[in-house]
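Backbone geometry:

***
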Amino acid sequence: MSNVSVRQRTPEAEIFGKTLRRLRDEAKLSQEALGQGANLTTGYISDLERGLKAPGLATILRLAVALRVDPTELLKDFTPATLRRLK
């Protein structure tokens, strides 16, 4: 048996991660700078961007503040059509 944990990507986490990466790039922030601004670790930011973790509401709000965007910007790719495909 292996002690290595395998992280499973979920479609929701992948969509969120792509949006987060795009907004971070647009803000010209490194993962480290975003993590500092949101009081999150660089590793956690990396996991979010790669779709390995899905954030809770408090984290989304902290990321929005650090990115200086409305929280809805982080969720705007979750359109009705996208949500239907996630069922």
